[in-house]
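Dear H.,

Thanks for agreeing to be a second pair of eyes. The structure we're designing against is below in token form, covering all 277 positions.
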């Protein structure tokens, strides 16, 4: 592991790098230096200074059931706190019916609570909290608003391997049979970053293969015990800066990992384009 240890390129040392409430945070953490590739199906958890993102997800089950979701996201950080706004447009269809319209507008805020970085940077972990929710704007697509608090952890081992984990809770509010429905939400994203020195591809800064899993476990009402778990296998490619812009693309194949998930998704794809500035 010694050959993979991160070399500090600034003046921060273990003695002077601590800051924040009770000195729980660490300036040396990769959380502040874009070390964590942005996931494709798991919630983003790292610090984003200013970012615009366009996402597309297509899923299918059987010959008739289809779903397409196109969403735009904006993220902006102030200090160590990142604010996020997402607006989706979706279309669903099956053999009996179809609907289209704007999905719930989602708003969230996240921040790190505690960080630990080993003396030479080999082990780097950030634990934090995310508070979010969504507001229904089109009852034809979704008549329920949602409250979603969560905890996250971003772990970096050596220079290349990262694990991003999200554990959360969801509760629905609205006029219908799902009012008050609660779920335990969980996700994990594994990645290994291949740098431009290893790649040698003109214009590419790094490529990060990604394996992800995102699930919802029903806690009450008619969904108690149901476990919708989707997996994905793909990559994110970060390009070299164009002036102050740093573009990135991501692509992954979706697949069900439980029988509950297979009822609604047999396969799918997700694509992402982001610009940081």
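And this is the sequence the design step returned. I haven't edited it by hand at all.
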């Amino acid at each position: 592991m010694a050959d993979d240890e991160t070399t500090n390129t600034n003046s921060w040392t273990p003695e002077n790098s601590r800051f924040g409430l009770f000195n729980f945070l660490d300036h040396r953490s990769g959380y502040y230096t874009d070390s964590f590739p942005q996931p494709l199906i798991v919630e983003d958890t790292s610090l984003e200074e200013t970012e615009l993102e366009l996402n597309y997800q297509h899923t299918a089950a059987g010959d008739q059931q289809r779903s397409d979701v196109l969403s735009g996201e904006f993220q902006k950080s102030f200090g160590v706190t990142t604010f996020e706004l997402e607006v989706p447009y979706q279309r669903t269809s099956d053999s009996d019916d179809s609907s289209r319209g704007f999905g719930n507008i989602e708003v969230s805020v996240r921040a790190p609570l505690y960080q630990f970085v080993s003396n030479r940077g080999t082990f780097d972990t950030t634990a934090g909290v995310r508070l979010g929710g969504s507001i229904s704007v089109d009852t034809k697509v979704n008549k329920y608003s949602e409250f979603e608090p969560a905890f996250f952890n971003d772990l970096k081992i050596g220079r290349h391997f990262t694990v991003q984990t999200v554990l959360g809770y969801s509760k629905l509010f609205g006029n219908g049979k799902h009012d008050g429905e609660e779920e335990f939400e969980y996700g994990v994203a594994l990645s290994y970053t291949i740098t431009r020195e290893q790649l040698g591809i003109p214009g590419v800064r790094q490529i990060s293969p990604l394996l992800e899993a995102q699930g919802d476990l029903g806690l009450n009402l008619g969904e108690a015990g149901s476990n919708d778990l989707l997996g994905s296998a793909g990559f994110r490619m970060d390009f070299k800066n164009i002036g102050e812009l740093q573009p990135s693309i991501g692509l992954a194949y979706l697949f069900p990992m439980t029988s509950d998930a297979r009822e609604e998704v047999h396969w799918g794809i997700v694509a992402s384009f982001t610009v940081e500035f």
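Two observations from my side: The chain has one domain: 19-276. Residues 1-9 have pLDDT under 50 and may be disordered.

Warmly,
E.
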